[in-house]
Amino acid sequence: MSQGLIQGSMREAPLPDIIQLVSQGGKSGCFNVVEENKRTKIYLKDGRIIHAVSAAAEGLEAFYEVALWLDGSYSFEEGEVSVAPTIQKPNASILMEMGRRMDEWRVISQKISSVDLYPVSNLLPGETPAGVNPREAKLLELTTGYYTVLELSEVLQKPVLNVAKDLYGLAMAGHIALKGVRSGRKPAVELPAAPAPAPAPAPVPAAAGFPVAEDAPAPPPKVTLDPLMLAKLTAFTQRISQTSKTVLPFEHHEMINRLQGRSTQGIINGEGPEAVKQLALSISKAAVDAGVDAELVKTLNAQLKALFAK
User: Fold this and answer.
1) Which of 128, 152, 184, 186 could form a disulfide with 145 if both were Cys (CB 3.0 to 4.6 A apart)?
2) Contact between 99 and 66 (Cβ < 8 Å)
3) Least confident residue range of 60-69, 146-155, 165-174, 219-228
4) Model pTM?
């Protein structure tokens, strides 16, 4: 393929418009679409889109992957095409669908800038978010900071754009945050999976907002922290402890001190901000386990959540 080259940026000229322009000329050739380390090839024969292939998929699935690559670039090389067709739909319908997905992703990306980010729940034990449907509630169980947006779509066996839309709603409501590094443990919850030779035992449900411990849980990722960060995180545990003591009766203060000491040791061991979050979760869970009045636990959760929102 060497008879001509068209190239550009997805930001400057949307790919659907360029494909439409090339197809109207009845050209044959291949679009190479790239964003960072991702690459997809889209083949045209006599102006008709006939095939697409990426590292993970082919056909329409591979074609629609690029709808999320708003910072991608493309080049078209004209020439003979000899690939087997995998796309049968007319250009107009698939280009319209790509444009729709790109428009949706432009909105979603204001909160979720990449499918490689790690969603983390902001909810505390016993907290039931208002206005969350069952599908979003199931998704919240998985947002422990272990899975990326893309990985969530894979374990749920749903299109990444659909998962991202649900996460966008949860982020707008303040129920989740997006992190750049893995920060939590793998959630032990029931997920859709391919049939196995023998059924696995069902996981034991956890209290709301808490991951279930696995038989052999992986240790949290170690984070290298400088002395200033260590001091800040330790000071944050003190704020959590003091706030908890203003809400809970005196007989629970020793429990708070014990959990704070465990959190401080976790920070020293390299667990980083995850140890601070776990302190708040542990105090709330311990209060529930100790039979503290539900309204008092609700007040505790609200004040702890306010600390993280500052």
Assistant:
1) 184
2) no
3) 219-228
4) 0.57
